[in-house]
């Protein structure tokens, strides 16, 4: 039975020499995660987001996940440039009522984070290099997205409706970490009737 689990048999890279700062040196005005308010770690409020990108063939997905509710926002982009990422993040965050903080990795595509911060009035922080666990909610969600579209999948063939439908499925899936609530219910603070 355990052999059928999604992550069974995955090989992990054992490591080796890495530059300690990775892409951090490419990000101007970078604020380290150590400066982030302690309340973000408690996951007691909506509006603290984690962000990243999911790579695909002929396209990428910009992803944002609320740390408390696991509510997910996704936008397809053609190229992983700092301009397209900033535009995607600003557009996604403008659709939600709560944006307090955003925690990102050290990819150079986030170099224009100050523009996103100014547009959304959010405080943006960056995880330590090579510490993906500091953005574990987003990494887990990206893994769930990979179940729909595995590595190497041609993202450009997807319609906007197909992307929206799959992400809606994530928002409507009950989660054990949320005591059986769906992310949408946890995000809006209300029960949702899925069958009428």
Assign the CATH architecture.
Answer: 2-Layer Sandwich
Poorly predicted segments: none
Which strand order does the major sheet show? 3-2-1-4-5
Per CATH, the class reads: Alpha Beta
Q: With helices defined by DSSP (H or I, 4 residues minimum), what is the helix count?
A: 6
Beta content: 15-25%
Task: Walk me through what this model shows.
- With 196 residues, this protein is of the alpha/beta class.
- The radius of gyration is 17 Å and the shape is globular.
- The protein has a single domain (22-188), classed as Ribonuclease H-like superfamily/Ribonuclease H (Nucleotidyltransferase, domain 5, 2-Layer Sandwich), CATH 3.30.420.
- The mean pLDDT is 89.
- The protein has a 5-stranded mixed sheet with strand order 3-2-1-4-5, sandwiched between helices.
- Helix 2 (82-93) runs parallel beside helix 3 (113-120).
- 28% of the residues lie in helices and 16% in strands.
Summarize this structure briefly.
By secondary structure, this protein is α/β, with parallel strands linked by helices. It has helices at 39-42, 82-93, 113-120, 136-148, 160-171, 183-188, and strands at residues 48-56, 59-66, 72-77, 101-104, 123-126. The protein is built from 6 helices and 5 strands; from the N terminus they run H-E-E-E-H-E-H-E-H-H-H.
Blueprint (SSEs and pairs):
Elements: H1 39-42, E1 48-56, E2 59-66, E3 72-77, H2 82-93, E4 101-104, H3 113-120, E5 123-126, H4 136-148, H5 160-171, H6 183-188
Parallel strand pairs: 1-4, 4-5
Antiparallel strand pairs: 1-2, 2-3
Helix pairs in contact: 2-3
């Amino acid at each position: 039975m355990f052999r059928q689990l999604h992550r069974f048999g995955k090989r992990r890279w054992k490591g080796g020499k890495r530059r300690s700062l990775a892409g951090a040196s490419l990000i101007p005005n970078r604020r380290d995660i150590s400066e982030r308010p302690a309340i973000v770690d408690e996951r007691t409020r909506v509006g603290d987001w984690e962000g990243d990108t999911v790579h695909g063939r002929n396209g990428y997905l910009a992803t944002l996940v609320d740390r408390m509710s696991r509510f997910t926002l996704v936008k397809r982009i053609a190229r992983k440039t700092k301009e397209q990422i900033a535009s995607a993040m600003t557009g996604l965050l403008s659709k939600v009522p709560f944006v307090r903080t955003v925690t990102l990795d050290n990819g150079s595509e986030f170099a224009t984070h100050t523009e996103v911060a100014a547009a959304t009035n959010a405080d943006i922080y960056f995880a330590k290099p090579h510490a993906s666990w500091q953005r574990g909610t987003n990494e887990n969600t990206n893994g769930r997205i990979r179940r729909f579209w595995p590595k190497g999948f041609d993202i450009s063939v997807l319609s906007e409706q197909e992307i929206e439908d799959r992400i809606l499925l994530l928002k409507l899936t009950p989660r054990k970490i949320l005591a059986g609530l769906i992310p949408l219910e946890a995000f809006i603070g209300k029960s949702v009737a899925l069958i009428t």
